[in-house]
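quick one
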Amino acid sequence: MITLAISKGRILEEALPLLSRAGIEPEEDPRSSRKLVIPVDDREFRLLVIRAQDVPIYVEHGAADLGIAGKDVLLEQGSLNLYEPLDLGIARCRMVVAGRQDRSSHGKRPRVGTKYAETTRRFFAKRGTQVEIIPLSGSMELAPQVGLTDWIVDLVDTGNTLRANGLVVLDHIADISSRLVVNKGSMKMKHSAIGAVIDRLAAAASAAAVQAAARG
Ligand code: ATP
Ligand code: PRP
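structure w/ PRP:
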């Protein structure tokens, strides 16, 4: 039995066609099912549907052999003891510093609102910029509008959310996409089965990339 942890929402939406291409067909639609453990047709596989931030934790502890996690979550959680063999090329976006056009900041130590406190701390420390990090859990774009923070660190895809809230990108931190992560023990103990899944997913991801490029 191989267990794959995945999060509902954006990653699941984009991962389902990839899983299907790799021959992994859930018995129920995980987008609508209330089940948290979803069997897969061949019964040698199952999906765990959990919160995005929890995927690396389940995989690191061996509760799942494999997981699909955003690079943002992996960066934030830092030195995780797991393998990251594959960039699946889905849920692509960028992690940026955003703020008002004039970069206005109050005082010597700008306040930065984010749910990526650790990544933000590392980014500004590397630059030698002193900031005060204000931990938030969502809707970061609101914080500069109401004077809670000077800047935010958040994900941007189309830029629509920033634009709608009068903010612009000030700095690029990282390109983000979803990665396949693997428990180290599972890689040893279930080497051939996991190797085969990685190969199937790698083939599915590159076929999807070729198709996307052809579409322009
Ligand atoms: P939860 O709802 O569990 O708190 P979340 O709000 O982070 O988690 P999603 O918005 O579905 O859940 O994001 C999950 C992952 O999708 C993120 O970790 C990131 O890798 C990616 N992602 C987030 N926003 C975007 C976006 N605008 N475009 C593309 N990918 C994104
Ligand atoms: C994500 C992110 C931005 C938005 C960016 O939020 O946190 O707010 O997408 O996408 P865009 O550049 O295409 O507008 P999401 O929609 O996941 O909501 P959340 O803040 O609840 O996570």
